[in-house]
Amino acid sequence: MGRGGNPTEGRCLLGIDVGQTAVKAVIHTAELCPVAVGHRASPVDRSTPGHAERSQQELWDAVADAISDAIRVSGISPTSVAAVGIAGHGDGLHVLSTRGLPLTPAITAMDSRAHREASELAEDPERTRLILDRTGQVPTAGSVGHLLRHLLRADPGLLNGAGAVLSCKDTIRYRLTGTLGTDYSDACASFLDLATAQWSAEVVAAYGLPPEVIGMLPPITHSADIVGTVTDVAAERTGLAVGTPVIAGMHDVQAAAIGMAALTPGLLSIAAGSFNTNGVTTTQTDIDPRWQSRLSITPDLRIAMSTSATAAPALEWMLTTLGATTASARTELFARASHLSPETSVPLVLPFFYDSPYGAHVPASLTGVRGWHESAHMLRGVLEGIALMHVWHTRALAERFSWRHPIMLGGGLAKSPLYVQLVANALRAPVSVVVNDEPGALGAAALAGVAVGVLDSLAAAQQLVDMSAEIEPTAASADYWADVCDAFDSLIGDRIDQRSTVR
């Protein structure tokens, strides 16, 4: 990665990024140079409509195997790992029993089974406003509160055996250390009052949940606080050394912002992974239904982020539909799409295949399809749709926040030069791509390094992040993208109007 560093000298840092479909464990040198990566799929079960889940045991197995792989591949002694940092996807639901055993599946944020609960809240302006004012967001169907309410409707006795309501990364922390807790960046996704940085009984009630839920919410600490050490059982399962410090960790958006050198006020980071994520780091406390104002690694720092499930799930749907199911077929298809003229008309894709910022009832759409269009045009159409959602999200953020250029870009799709150029053209702004393939794991490792003194500060850590040269929007694409943006806005409006009429 250009900075050198011998992993057998000094102290190494392990960063774990627990995503919604994959788990990455990356060992870094003290200079944050990746040494070895352990990667495990964590398949999501969608066999029941609206459900997106896996078992908590399967999730832990995937993480433990990824850690074990990283240590084995690196060739280092486990005692060389100075600290462990964990990042995980936000929202979703993970409930443990009073004995610390899984009580519910590991439900992901892509789950929409609680659409009824989300609709009921949306139709109650008073409760919606209270939750927005207190927590900084209007919750989606995949939020902790809605999912818990949904499960309690199906099984009112669920809470009788419940001991803790956790976020994704907190379940991994528990498996590693045996300690229960969370950090501010994940706590504010559910029942946290942003003004006091404390759990709120009023917010719990606004979700229609019983008051005893408050007693099941874990202690909250700063993300970089050391909250435990690797236990004997976890060490045997993962290959880590007993007693290795583990920090509280953070929401994956916060970790990725660090890994893209963007967790500094006035910087915008965007990523296309499981979600289309667009976040500006800020100390402002502005709130709006179109974005989530989330506390970061400390309560005085925030990321205002506007997100939707309109990135990798949409791309995967299109690739599978086109029959591009192998790596070679996908590489070939991307190559053909890259060779299309930049101003070639392609189908306009509204990528709401699984969810939308307007609710699950607003569906996806493909329009402008012509007989001469083939699979390469369809692929570029969905990539443009994902880029257009970046436009939609950042347009809302720009009404209250400003940011410096370049825009920091990451996520799995950022490996595609075609997508990167489309994003620059769509946003009409220069973008810089993180060189590291795993910015979430890098961010988690960096904060762990700060916690144990391997790194001097978060600012110093972010200076070690490698970013590409700026990719500028092409002048020739300006008119094309102005027209596409107008057509996209009209298509969204038409879809919303059609659903409103049907309903």
TrEMBL record:
The keyword Transferase applies. One of its GO terms (molecular function) is kinase activity. It comes from the Bacteria. InterPro entries: ATPase_NBD, Carb_kinase_FGGY, FGGY_C, FGGY_Carb_Kinase, FGGY_N. One of its GO terms (biological process) is D-xylose metabolic process. Keywords: Carbohydrate metabolism, Kinase, Transferase, Xylose metabolism. Residues 297-451 form the Carbohydrate kinase FGGY C-terminal domain. Belongs to the FGGY kinase family. PANTHER family: SUGAR KINASE, XYLULOSE KINASE. This is Carbohydrate kinase. The lineage of its organism: Bacteria, Bacillati, Actinomycetota, Actinomycetes, Micrococcales.
